Amino acid sequence: MPTNIEWTDQSDNIIRAKVSGWWCQKISEGCKNCYSEKLNQNSFFGGNKQPYSGQPPELVLDTEAIRKWGFQRKPKKHFVSSMTDVFGEWVPRFWQHEMLDGMFVAPNQIFQILTKRPEIMLLSMDEWLSFHGLDKLPLNIWSGTSIENRRTLEECSKFLAQIPADIRFWSVEPLLEDLGDITHYLNDVQLVIVGGESGPNSRPCHIEWINSIVQQCQSAKTPVFVKQLGANAQLEGQPFKTRNKKGGDIEEFPQELQVREFPVLVRE
Ligand code: SF4
Known about the structure:
12 strands, globular, seven-stranded parallel β-sheet, three-stranded mixed β-sheet
């Protein structure tokens, strides 16, 4: 499905609710204004109106979408499951492995997997790697975790760092506080995506916080991608207004934040 997410080409929602819509379980401060739950509340967008809490509805894995990855000629970046967390506790392990199998046989496609549960991703990927006799993920599978604040920086980054992959990435969105000194964490990450919160009731994101991340990434030579300033951007304690409602137009960013880099893919 085409997407307006700046760091990918398309989103592939391979796990859906059987009747309609999607499901996920809120887990962290970053989930508070979950865009996926909002879409799911709206039957116009195909949602089933179930909240992202309680018990999951019956879910299905779209094996046909996975199979098609291997037949795609044009190289693309795929954000896998923007509407849920494929490493949620409720997702069967063999679904995760079927997904990885599909990625393995589509080496000309890049798959960006993002989770708020990197401890489960680590276990699941380790099992998949040992089943295939591999010691590292294929180059086209990028493993990412969400970082929102200092707590998730501390807790999530340590699991992500253990994943044997060429490309591990952070999605620092929504950025909810100043992360402070991230220098030593950057040794274990090959891409940092950063952005403020969008949508109604967005929490403030200070441009100084984004700037600090960008500067530290640049000093460490870690590629950094500024996705958006957010709908409630602040600069020097004052609202920083943008025409783009999520502050996602790079031309409206302060000059020093106009940076959208990706890692170079080379395996030695
Ligand atoms: S993990 Fe992502 S999709 Fe799931 S509830 Fe949180 S923000 Fe929403």
